[in-house]
Amino acid sequence: MKAGIFISGTGTNMEALVKAHREGELEGVSEISFVFSNKRNAPGVEKAEAAGIKTIVIPKIKEESVEDYEIRIFDAIKNYNTGIIVLAGFMRILSPVFLRLYPGQIINIHPSLLPAFKGVDAQKQAYDYGVKLSGCSVHFVDESLDGGPVILQKAVLRQDDDTLESFRNSILKEEHSLLVEAVSIVATGAYEIQNRFVSIKRRK
Ligand code: GAR
Questions:
Q1: pLDDT score of 204
Q2: How many Cβ atoms sit within 10 Å of the Cβ of residue 160?
Q3: Order of strands, edge to edge, in the sheet holding 150-157?
Q4: How close is the Cα of 124 to the center of ligand 1, in Å?
Q5: 139 touches 108 (CB < 8 A)
Q6: What is the CATH number of domain 2-200?
Q7: Of 109, 82, 83, whose CA–CA distance to 189 is shortest?
Q8: For 25-77, what is each residue's pLDDT tens digit?
Q9: φ, ψ at 7 (rounded to 5°)
Q10: Ligand 1 centroid vs 128 CA: distance in angstroms?
Q11: pTM metric for this prediction
């Protein structure tokens, strides 16, 4: 199936997906059709262009409703017929209007062990709380905030000498491989969901 990637920032998770795809490691994904950004100056946009991937940048206009904005996004991406949309550092909450267009097809990476530390800057929330263990989660996106069924999680220990920055980087490093694995699972249909639990039929 074809994949689309949504970003808002640096785009390192997007780069990890692109690299995995080039190396034949992104199972079930025939093509990364586009990288969409809501931010014109997101560094990830330049990186995607440099990698030869089609980029689509549509910032929200202040006056328009979220729904109208998302319909503009849909109009720009619908012809790619993507089977999976990966939110890779996409910092907007998608409304039910958009989610219903891609039922069960949108996944997100979040830098904490959900359901802990939902929302913005989860690494700082975890660091400031003083947890010894955090990590990252890839989950299906539903209408709740960071609340859809978890596909994969990876734990990361906070070391005694970790600064917020080093803690953030340790999590980010794990995110890249976790996201590649989760996309491969979803794109190959190697999972089942029962009572919110995503059982994986096949892992490398
Ligand atoms: C990543 O840490 C990702 O988990 C996080 O933004 C960062 C994007 O980095 N996403 C969220 O916080 C979503 N709520 P990247 O642009 O380098 O991939």
A1: 60
A2: 6
A3: 55-57, 31-37, 2-7, 84-87, 106-110, 133-140, 150-157
A4: 12
A5: yes
A6: 3.40.50.170
A7: 83
A8: 999 999 999 999 999 999 999 999 999 999 999 999 999 999 999 999 999 99
A9: -135, 165
A10: 18
A11: 0.97
